[in-house]
């Protein structure tokens, strides 16, 4: 029997649209009440988090010139700040930013610190040179001048050695002596030798200020206690880095370090003061 013969034997009613079931649309999806409430709670939490982040970002100082140290100074006695500035090839792109930050640091230190506090600066690559021996703020007139020609490579040890030697030019007691390393952390020093030199330098605090996330070679032993700060160059990427990594402009990081040494807080200046 063919298919056609089979269809002919079926009733006309069953072979017409009248006898077929009508189309029924699927009922619209209704979100469960518990799911709607959960999504609403999550949305509220997200908005609250965004508000807290925005408030936190708003309170951060944006420039060192527009900032001040607030609260009583807890460190009694002179603060001796020694800088070791990496000028190797990997840091050349940050030269202009660093020089602006150094000028801001100079003006800020003269304004906010005590006359007996001192600054010293050494530059390093494959060799090192001290261009500003330890100098009290009362007699400091200009930021550290740039170095002469240095050998290629990146060795931090010579910079620390030269900074220690330079202390003999202006010996003075220090209530707190800190080293600030401005470097991407990619150094060629033998770790054990670097740790020995840093131990001999008798720093109470060591800071690493880097344009990258991570310590590079600055880890292990004594170097695990280094306080690492990350700086950004501003713009949209800088704002994102500020939220995600708590990165700051380089000059503001200098202010944060000074506040850490004095036991004060770095805050925005009151424009009406």
Account of the 3D structure:
Helix content is 36%, strand content 19%. With 273 residues, the chain is an alpha/beta fold. The strands form two sheets. It has a seven-stranded mixed beta sheet with strand order 4-3-2-5-6-7-8, sandwiched between helices. Strands 1-9 form a two-stranded antiparallel ribbon. α6 links the parallel β7 and β8.
Average of pLDDT: 83
Summarize the main sheet: 7 strands, mixed
| CA(first)-CA(last) distance | 104 Å
The low-pLDDT segments are none
Q: Assess the beta-strand content as a share of residues.
A: 15-25%
Number of strands: 9
Keywords:
273 residues; alpha/beta; seven-stranded mixed beta sheet; two-stranded antiparallel sheet; 7 helices; 36% helix; vWFA_dom_sf; VWFA domain-containing protein
Topology:
Layout: H1 3-9, H2 33-59, E1 67-70, E2 79-86, H3 95-112, E3 118-124, E4 128-136, H4 157-166, E5 176-182, H5 191-201, E6 205-210, E7 227-232, H6 235-245, E8 248-249, H7 250-262, E9 265-268
Parallel strand pairs: 2-3, 2-5, 5-6, 6-7, 7-8
Antiparallel strand pairs: 1-9, 3-4
Organism: Actinoplanes auranticolor
InterPro entries: vWFA_dom_sf (IPR036465)
Protein name: VWFA domain-containing protein
Brief rundown of the structure:
By secondary structure, the protein is an alpha/beta fold.
């Amino acid at each position: 029997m063919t298919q056609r013969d089979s269809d002919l034997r079926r009733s006309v009613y069953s072979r017409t649209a009248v006898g077929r079931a009508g189309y029924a649309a699927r009922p619209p999806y209704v979100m469960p009440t518990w799911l709607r409430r959960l999504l609403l709670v999550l949305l509220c939490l997200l908005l609250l988090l965004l508000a807290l982040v925005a408030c936190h970002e708003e309170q951060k100082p944006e420039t060192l010139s527009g900032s001040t140290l607030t609260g009583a100074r807890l460190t009694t006695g002179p603060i001796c700040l020694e800088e070791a500035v990496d000028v190797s090839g990997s840091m050349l792109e940050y030269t202009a930013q660093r020089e602006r930050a150094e000028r801001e640091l100079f003006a800020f230190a003269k304004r906010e610190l005590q006359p007996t506090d001192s600054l010293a600066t050494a530059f390093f690559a494959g060799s090192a040179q001290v261009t500003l021996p330890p100098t009290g703020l009362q007699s400091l007139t200009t930021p550290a001048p740039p170095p002469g020609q240095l050998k290629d490579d990146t060795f931090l040890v010579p910079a620390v050695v030269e900074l220690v030697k330079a202390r003999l030019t202006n010996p003075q007691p220090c209530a707190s002596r800190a080293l600030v390393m401005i470097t991407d952390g990619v150094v060629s020093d033998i770790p054990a030798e670097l740790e020995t030199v840093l131990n001999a330098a008798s720093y109470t605090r060591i800071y690493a200020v880097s344009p990258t996330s991570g310590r590079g070679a600055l880890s292990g032993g004594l170097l695990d206690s280094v306080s690492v700060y990350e700086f950004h160059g501003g713009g949209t990427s800088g704002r994102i880095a500020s939220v995600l990594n708590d990165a700051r402009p380089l000059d503001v990081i200098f202010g944060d370090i000074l506040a850490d040494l004095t036991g004060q807080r770095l805050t925005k200046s009151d424009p009406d003061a």
